[in-house]
């Protein structure tokens, strides 16, 4: 993006601010549903700053603008903000002021700070208001309508419903589970605003947001029926009728806010982190009885996080589809380079898409593929464009983090493959990352353990040699839904949600040497029951992902015997599960890749 | 204790309850200063239940009584409560009701639950009152005066002051640090109630509580002077005069409560977890402005937790004294058994005391030694008595957890030594515990890491084989003060306090096979600066304790090369630092014990 364009847009914002007596505006990344990734319609922060990462908050004052983002995006943001005058605020660095501190420093007391109250939860606003002390937070409606001239329209993609053979549980059963857990009485309602939660509850899937399987909607669960607020154009007549038979009424999406007025005599269960400030305020003004739902993380979120046997079987099937595609893809790539040809990050990304889309079950990618060669691999959330794409030859590490939604499950996998002979330093980094990955995968841990406690296991081999990675180790993975889902995670930050059998999550340690290379090894794992011992019941992980790991980049003396055994066993499983689906040539290729070390 | 005696005492309590219209009484373990270990005067819970562990809460109703304690004490409490009718409530077990739940279940609504409001902090009472819902918490003064006929007197031991050569910081400097950190103004006061905090602040030491180096006192820090509330009999005239020169006034301990009335015009900094409900209420009634101190864990606690160079040097010196005593002790014990003689846990405990007390710097033990042979080693906080003491011969593991206060520092060390030839199962357990101990000791970790994240490192080798221990991995250690001190720890529970250079803590994984054996290997470690890397600054541990580890109980193939190297290096250091102080016979013995594996 040309920085002059950004400067002009900021000027427009400042005119709006002046007209409305606002001394600052806060522009977050989120949409009205607290989504992590958003539709084009909601990319206001990107429109105004040029920074296209998934996480970041822009603050604009009369004379300054600043953007806070996390370590995944430091390099990318540096590049994209260059020349715009927007200051990059690196979250997590000691010298970085908190957004609220910065506002206090920049603005005179009593200044008015505007924000779109649809994009902030009740909790967000409370925290913000407490943080900015003498300044005033002014929640507005969507002011970007006045600023963004050629704003893209709200998406209107058709939706589809997943059958019980794939979800393992009907929407009726899920609804009654919710009603039971809330001990709902006749006058009670449960408000749902988060898209993947609603999609899970109604076994509904859509493609409104790139890479996610969700559709824009709201839902209200009543004692004996439910309402789905969704643009009816997205559904067929039969689907609407079918929903109606199952006591699920369809009401247009844009009627949600006005519908809230009809709830004035109800007790409303809501989640303070998942209900927008504007909606909350409206309900309060109508005198509704507002009850925090008992599960801080969202009851539907917690239910959704534990996959049933059908979903787990679907994940396994998806991993085979993905493994076949990846084997063929790497065989193609290596063949190409062997013939002396070169490729580009862009071509590689496109080819990977082609190989995956050969599967009948393939729907779409589950996130934008990261294809980073050599120094580009060190940009943690690198998105290759025609401009950034560099030539890939047989001279360094190629990091590919990619995944897909299949009709039965979702994948997310990172492999780093050295395309030439790796140096000793490259091998050391690769092996330490792998050692941490394996250590975490083979850990047994007591029931009651949360991800915060496990995180260091994957980092330890790196830390010992002065390495580390400034991102989390693992995230939950939705079932043909969002590739990132809560409420559990494996991160150093405190997260009280304990791991339970049926949870599916990633294991992705890495190391990033700026200007040199990036390495990450990621598999999806399932939490399973482990031993029952005198000291309590244990849990274990099982790796679900099926793709070889680059053994030529391993320095064997940096692995323990146990780690080597684990790796050899994993490679045995990869070959056993994938080979029946491969041609004899492909089998030979994979057998070589899976050879024991 | 005869269970009939306990039953009689409970009867007396019930009479008191009836006379005062109380339907329940809660008897905690603590004293007015929130001490972990208490003087005889305060052992009300032990007096009424017979359970002598350091942690436990007794609840008495008209018809029932129950005692909550943690995993360290399950076996001991089972034995000591037998026949008393008191139900043992095992904290941490899923089926164990919370104390508040149990009360709700037992009592009709509106029931009055009495407790001594001197023993509960403002926070405690808030949490309790919220927990018992419709029941009423009634804070009383010390009702045990009416119940406990031959209650021991409050201790009156003389105190002493540590010179700056040992503390590394004068009390004046510490006081001005406190005043600065609180940005105290003329009318401000800071209330201190916790004994080790006051002791640290005034470089004061006492022996009022067994094994701790504290004296009963309160303190108030003013803008330009301070008051120490202490029984003046504990001080010499010179000491009182000297304090007065340093603007520290001495007022008798029992005048503290009445003195509070003089603070009615002051702003009072206090810690809600460290000020008793009764004192807080009094201050509020007088209309004082109450300000929570900014440090949730207590500012003095946080200052005290980071040892200065003089204190660290003192710790090192104490470790040498301790290591000499332990070498001589084990040499004596092995010699005895080699001659075909037997010993007893009690004799061993007494002999260990004798060897330690040979040091000129020795003051007292830092906690009651745990000497557990074979199955007694599985009782985590086993206290040997003449009755429980069993014969020690050359047939099993002997676990000894002991430590001492020396004038320059404090030790806390556990060694488990096999006195005969260990079985394969014993060796496996021993080696897995050692592997975890070593892994934690050699971990490097980024600045900003808290103990919660590190805990699993010490457990991992055990967990992999289905083992675990149901206690924390490490606690802070006071400098010639309390052997347990906060605010940091290495435990699975969440503790946001990050580890910082200068912190001194234990590393004590173990495994306990009920009826068979207990194994624990514990060293005291110092947190130090580690590498400065591209990924941030690192921290490391350094082991301070100096005593050999029983290499004959190691199964070498269960250790990695790195772990073996670490152990051999540690043993090299033990020999290097202790041998100059040993006789040639002792040197030979230690050299053999420290031989590389």
Overview of the structural elements:
With 597 residues, chain A is an alpha+beta fold. Chain A contains 19 helices and 30 strands. In chain A, strands 4-3-2-1-5-6 form a six-stranded mixed sheet, sandwiched between helices. In chain A, strands 12-11-10-8-13-14 form a six-stranded mixed sheet. In chain A, helix 14 crosses helix 15 and helix 16 (424-442) packs antiparallel against helix 17. The radius of gyration of chain A is 25 Å and the shape is globular. The two termini of chain A are 47 Å apart. At the A-B interface, strand 23, helix 17 and strand 29 of A face strand 23, helix 17 and strand 29 of B.
The low-confidence parts of chain A are none
What's the β-strand tally of chain A?
30
Secondary-structure-derived class of chain A: alpha+beta
Oligomer: homodimer
> What is the topology, as strand order, of the major beta sheet of chain A?
4-3-2-1-5-6
Mean pLDDT of chain A: 96
Principal-axes shape call of chain A: globular
For the largest interface, the chains and their residue counts are: A-B, 34 and 34 residues
- What is the helix tally of chain A? 19
Distance between the termini of chain A: 47 Å
Radius of gyration of chain A: 25 Å
Largest sheet of chain A: 6 strands, mixed
Helix-residue proportion of chain A: 25-40%
Q: Tell me the fraction of residues in β-strands of chain A, as a range.
A: 15-25%
